[in-house]
Design goal:
Layout (H helix, E strand, L loop, with lengths): L3 H33 L15 H11 L10 H18 L17 H23 L2 H32 L4 H6 L11 H14 L11 H4 L9 H26 L10 H22 L5 H30 L1
Helix pairs in contact: 1-9, 1-10, 2-9, 3-4, 3-9, 4-5, 5-7, 5-11, 7-9, 7-11, 9-10
């Protein structure tokens, strides 16, 4: 199969897989948090609580889809859709197996950074359009946090591009046939993971929606389907960050014996579990501590990692 039918099939597979994975992640997160916190977790709706996510989705869709009378209606409606679409678009350049991906672009790494950066506009617009002081403060926090940590994320991936000699995701996977980049690029890998948690606004770096300070922050005025879109965007963003980490640092779909796609998801699962473990184990820092840590620790580490990759590339030339 080639041409438009194949593109449509791969697009449908990626969209369906991403949304299914997001739903599965919600259930998995609740079960793992319950295990680590010595409690039961979801166990009433369906076997092992597997239908709890479906029940929550029905509840959200049945809620009143309310738009505050003081909000900017157009931006208020568009903001959550922009967040979800940006998270899904970033998945388009991920190669899940040889020849399996929506778009194998020459600038795939740059496309991922650009698409993921668009998600912040949805959150900013949502907070601004809500015309609520808590939502506005949350959106301002998003702007400073995400834009800061996107710098470190981009620098950490430039080291990978230097070693592979390409921005194409499939070329980066092929360049790891003799060894994963996580070893020579361990500082970049760690910077990427921390920046990914900040990018997706996951706990403990969920300061833009800190309930104890901002009453849910940027989505304080959202309910029903619109809130569900923000929720889905967060979990799809987790899957996207973990998929890029697998592709750029852990050899992508490369591995012996098993099918390539199986290796990709075997490597993906521990990273998704790590997102959940970080939420369970670490306390939320102050906002000024988060930004100070980024510019005083993450930036120098990312620059040293990039310099090391450049020297290694020059020595191999």
């Amino acid at each position: 199969m080639s041409g438009i039918p194949r593109i449509l099939m791969e697009t449908a597979a990626v969209l369906g897989g991403a949304l299914s994975l997001a739903g599965g992640m919600i259930w998995l997160e609740r079960r793992l948090l319950a295990l680590w916190q010595d409690r039961l977790g979801p166990n009433r709706v369906g076997p092992f609580g597997l239908l709890q996510v479906a029940a929550d989705l029905i509840k959200l869709l049945a809620k009143e889809d309310w738009v505050p009378p003081f909000a900017d209606r157009t931006l208020f409606v568009l903001a959550p859709a922009l967040t979800a679409v940006a998270a899904l678009a970033a998945l388009a350049v991920i190669p899940f197996a040889p020849g399996w991906g929506v778009a194998d672009l020459d600038v795939g790494l740059l496309f991922f950074l650009g698409a993921s950066a668009l998600g912040v506009y949805g959150v900013l617009l949502g907070g601004w359009a809500s015309r609520s002081k808590y939502a506005l403060l949350g959106s301002l926090r998003v702007g400073a946090q995400v834009l800061s940590y996107e710098v470190f994320m981009g620098l950490s991936l430039l080291g990978v591009a230097a070693l592979a000699g390409s921005f194409r995701m499939s070329d980066i996977v092929e360049a790891q046939k003799d060894g994963w980049f996580v070893l020579p690029q361990l500082p970049g890998f760690l910077v990427f993971l921390v920046a990914g948690i900040a990018e997706t606004r996951r706990s403990p770096l969920d300061l833009p929606e800190a309930e104890s300070e901002l009453v849910a922050g940027f989505h304080a005025e959202y309910s029903g389907f619109k809130f569900a879109l923000f929720f889905v965007g967060e979990y799809v963003g987790m899957a996207t960050i973990a998929s890029v980490a697998v592709t750029c640092f852990l050899g992508g779909w490369r591995g012996p014996l098993l099918p390539p796609a199986a290796w990709f998801f075997i490597k993906l699962a521990p990273l998704l579990a790590l997102f959940i473990l970080v939420r369970a184990a670490l306390p939320r820092p102050r906002y000024d501590q988060l930004l100070r840590f980024g510019w005083t620790a993450m930036l120098p580490l990312a620059l040293l990692n990039l310099a090391g990759a450049a020297l290694w590339r020059a020595a191999r030339a």
